[in-house]
Amino acid sequence: MSAIMWCASLMVCVSALVTCASTAGILYPRESESREVKSLDGMWNFRLSLPDPLVGFKERWYMKDLSKTGPVIQMPVPSSYNDVMVDKKIRDHVGLVWYDKSFFVPESWRQQGYRVFLRFGSVNYAAQVWVNTHLVLNHEIGHLPFQRDITANLKFGRLNRITVAVDNVLLATTVPQGSLQNISTNTGPKTIQTYTFDFFNYAGIHRSVFLYTTPIVYIDDVDVTTNYTEDGVGLIKYKIQYGGSLSSGETLNCSITVLNNENVREKFTVIADDEEGLSGIIKIENAKLWWPYLMHEEPGYMYTLEIRLSNTWNLDDVYRLPVGIRTIKWTNTAFLINNKPAYLRGFGRHEDSDIRGKGMDYALVTRDYDLIKWIGANSYRTSHYPYAEEIMDFADRHGIMIVDECPSVDTDNYSDKLLKKHTTSLAELIKRDKNRPSVIMWSIANEPRSNHKEADSYFKSVAIFVKTLDVLRPITAAIATDLDTDLLAQHLDIIGFNRYNAWYTLPGHTEIIQSRIEDEAAKWHAKHNKPVFMTEYGADSYAGLHMNPSFVWSEEYQVELMSEHFKAFDTLRTKNFFIGEMIWNFADFKTEQTVTRVGGNKKGVFTRQREPKSSAYHLRKRYWALANQLDGVQLPCNIKSYVIDSDRQNNVEL
To answer: Where in the cell is it found (predicted)?
Structure first.
């Protein structure tokens, strides 16, 4: 079997099994009185499946320690495997790789009758997982969590082993899409991966791996929606689903306590909809609302719902869910948070950094959010895939609005099979992030080939599907197709568009920007009568390259191009349908190797190492000025460097 045939057959197998687990919850693992969490992060054994992509299955590597199958190296989890080592063969590998790790499970977990779940935050792109030689999990589509109860597969009080096969191959029916190409080399034929999207196809176990415990009957999922009354009463509508089976005659009781952001019990009342208390409405007097950064003096205010599920035998399960109280509304001209018009000022971004690739890293996340707040932004889009839950936690707590995007990028070759995976990715994303106050929109695609006739019915189906899951948030997308031929915008609530005037179109001619942006944005609104925002614009700049007069790739040119866009945005803001601006990109990032990319995409206002270019200081002045003008925020004292005391005059006698 060829590598291409093998990868295609693996995707069929994985996708057939993925849908089986779609009804269960995917709550983030949190320790409590009834739950323990054990991290499996650290160093794992790792090896490539070479030269035969099937060798691991033929020789059943999952039946023994990976170190006994041949040479292994130590690979950190979480991380992408591509850039950790200096071996080009690892960086450019196409196909399967294998991981394994040994771990102990406490005997006390068995004695206490715990269920034990195995949870992965993300494996890219497809994964099969064995525990002690038993296949327990299959998952396709990276950037999203998956889990399973593995209690029956564990050896309590003894050494256990987890084995993971990871496949990074992208095909016409994966999300995102790609294709395989066979080429001839000096040493024989070779299969390479190709794709049209402009970021590196990092692979591996990208996010944390956890074991966590629950009682036999446990809190499986929680749905919350929020509102507030004119007299300041916060309303939290909740619905709790439980897992596990009740014995004959056994009953459940659910109780909820509300804690404020200092973890102190809040004054509240609960009006239950059922005898068990599994659904109802919580009322909080003088509630504090969740506000975006710089729209309120106390942004990102989070309550905690302390949910306690008890059964007849007094075996409790306790789960604490962070909740922010806020409303979202939109009209044909505006987007509102808590009934106040919100203007988005932010970025497109990537999960990307040196060495780690797309691996989750708390130090990096902390730095990124500090820079986001330093620059005065209040939002970003998770281009072009869902970001780590830990990253989303920061957004909730800091009041950063998120346009939450699924992994569909450059969508083409529309088919029923692709549609199924596309909607599966959105179902898993919405299930994961539905309760987050920071998530303000669902982005269903980035730059799809929406001029193709099949795009109309395809995206109509996607939009209808999303509305069956969430009607309280608007649907958007980042459109790059021309206005006259696009078939996607008609199915959206809010229109986002990407355009690179004076970069990909007429590079060097910044004099075209203002009129073109103003004209196009107005036409999007006129055609569809919906709010519009710009989801991408920008120019590459090579840090340290200075040219006067400005010239493409110089820091000066990036600043000049930005200013011309700012002029257009300010005109559009007076038109009352334009709701935001998001520059591309927050930071430089890695791409595939092409002659148009010098070490990657350099459109960041920060370098890949998170150091500011001239454009970062320029954007900071813009975003803080907007916050001052729109929300009355005082400008930082260091927004401008001292030059001269304008109040002091020198009197010179002649």
So the answer is: Lysosome
**Distance between CA 589 and CA 600 in Å, rounded?**
6
In angstroms, the CA 630 to CA 639 distance is 17
**324 band by pLDDT with thresholds 50, 70 and 90:** very high
Beta bridge partners of 238: 224, 280
pLDDT at 108 over 60: yes
CA dihedral for 303, 444, 476, 620, sign (positive or negative):
positive
With CA atoms as reference, report the closest residue to 141 among 167, 106, 109, 111.
167
| Alpha-carbon dihedral angle through residues 68, 72, 77, 78, given to the nearest 10 degrees | -130
Alpha helices per DSSP H over 19-93: 55-58, 88-91
| Angle subtended by helix axes 416-433 and 3-18, to nearest 10 | 50
- Residue in 39, 192, 25, 53 with CA at minimum distance from that of residue 104: 39
pTM of the model: 0.95
DSSP string spanning 254-313?
Answer: EEEEEE-TTS-BPPEEEEESSTT-SEEEEEETTPPPP--TTSSSSTT--EEEEEEEEETT
Beta carbons within 8 Å of 264's beta carbon, 6+ residues apart: none
Given a cut of 90, whether residue 314 has pLDDT beyond it is no
**Type of residue at 493:** D
Predicted local distance difference test score (pLDDT) of residue 9 = 44
User: Is 65:161 a contact under the CB 8 Å cutoff?
Assistant: yes
* Cα separation values, 370 from 153, 246, 378, 400, 585, Å: 43, 47, 12, 11, 16
Q: Residue 392: is it exposed, middle or buried by C-beta count within 10 angstroms (0-12/13-18/19+)?
A: buried
Selecting among 140, 266, 428, 447, the annotated active-site residue is 447
Q: Rounded CA gap, 531 and 489, in Å?
A: 11
**Where would I find the beta strands (DSSP E) of 96-133?**
96-104, 115-120, 123-124, 126-131
Q: What is the pLDDT of residues 493-509, one digit of tens each?
A: 999 999 999 999 999 99
**Rounded to whole angstroms, how far apart are CA atoms 11 and 18?**
10
Q: Tell me whether residue 555 is one of the annotated catalytic residues.
A: no
- The helix (H) or strand (E) run that includes residue 527 is helix 513-528
